[in-house]
């Protein structure tokens, strides 16, 4: 009973476990790749906030998979992100649009206009 109440306030324990696992994976990366993933991790927090924690964690885990594979293959960072890292980050974020808060607002706007137009 107490665990459910605590999770209601702090979020799912499983998400916290996934976050710690992601951080540990990131810490094991070589310095240049770690620096790159730090920047790529920070960008969506400002450019495309993801409101759902599970979607954000999945995005980070997928990003870690990509960067880990690049590190193992010794793929240069620029070969991963290209000449415009922001463009790469935004394209990467498009795969996780389901968790972005703006989708909820788009749905709300569409429903409001339908209602106003008498389409419901």
Automatic annotation (TrEMBL):
Protein's UniProt name: DUF1048 domain-containing protein
Xref: InterPro entries: UCP029876
